[in-house]
Amino acid sequence: MATLHLNSFNNFAELSDALVNEWLSAIDNAALARLPACFALAGGSTPAPIYRQLDGMLANRGRNSIKLVATDERWVDDNDAQSNEGLFKQCLPLSYGKQWQLVSLKNAARTPEVAIEAISERLKQQLPTAFTAVLLGMGADGHIASLFPDAPTQHDDLNCLAAVHPQTRQSRISLSLPRLLQTEKIWLVITGTEKRQVLENATTSNLPIAALLSEARCNIEVFWCP
């Protein structure tokens, strides 16, 4: 089981400052070691301010080559408000397409089920090594990426799988748990007392977050604020 390190902050601005500083160090260390820098990033409203802050700082730091993939994506166009890949374009306008190079979880197939083999092959070719870091959020139900309770966390030996949101029935595609775990670092960003309690009780549950904690091969840095 991974070692969990809880970093508590008074507010989200402090949390964002700390994570962006760690993120910049990870990018710099990869460049010094002449290693590829690649990150899997959660979507949604919670990490969006972090991405905007990082974007402004990266814009003044030369032209690092950094690969980016969403931890999961809704099967919608980028211009849809629910698209994580669209969110990255909005939050990283200064560095997207310059420092950041997106590896998309989507293609022209009508459904994720049809697309997963082709997307998995794309991931194997374009992201063949471990991630520099994976940034995850967590739902109050203990889900991570689009790996939901009582649903599969992997599909055969593929790097991704089709998923369905249990309430909305929205079609999604998600990195598999084994692929998420192929990383040097895991950053888990959560807010509020409810999610902190879910995390603290995870070891006694069978939730996706519990699987992450038990199977991770690197330490997990939790960034939490009320």
Summary tags:
single chain; alpha/beta; three-stranded antiparallel β-sheet; 7 helices; 10 strands; 33% helix
Task: Please describe what this structure looks like.
By secondary structure, the chain is α/β, with parallel strands linked by helices. 33% of the residues lie in helices and 21% in strands. The chain has a single domain (4-225), classed as 3-Layer(aba) Sandwich (Rossmann fold), CATH 3.40.50.1360. The chain has a seven-stranded parallel beta sheet with strand order 1-10-9-6-2-3-5, with helices on both faces. A hairpin with a 6-residue loop joins β7 (160-164) and β8 (171-175). The longest helix is centred in the N-terminal third of the chain and has 21 residues, at 12-32. The protein starts with a strand and ends with a strand.
CATH architecture: 3-Layer(aba) Sandwich
Number of domains: 1
CATH class assignment:
Alpha Beta
Query: What Rg, in angstroms, do the CA atoms define?
Result: 16 Å
Tally of separate helices: 7
Largest sheet, in brief, is: 7 strands, parallel
Return the CATH topology. Rossmann fold
User: Could you name the ranges where pLDDT drops below 50 across 5 or more consecutive residues?
Assistant: none
Reading the helices and strands in chain order gives EHEHEEHEHEEEHEHHE
Q: Structural class of the secondary structure composition?
A: alpha/beta
Q: Which bin fits the share of residues in helices?
A: 25-40%
Strand content: 15-25%
Q: How many E-type strands?
A: 10
Rough outline: globular
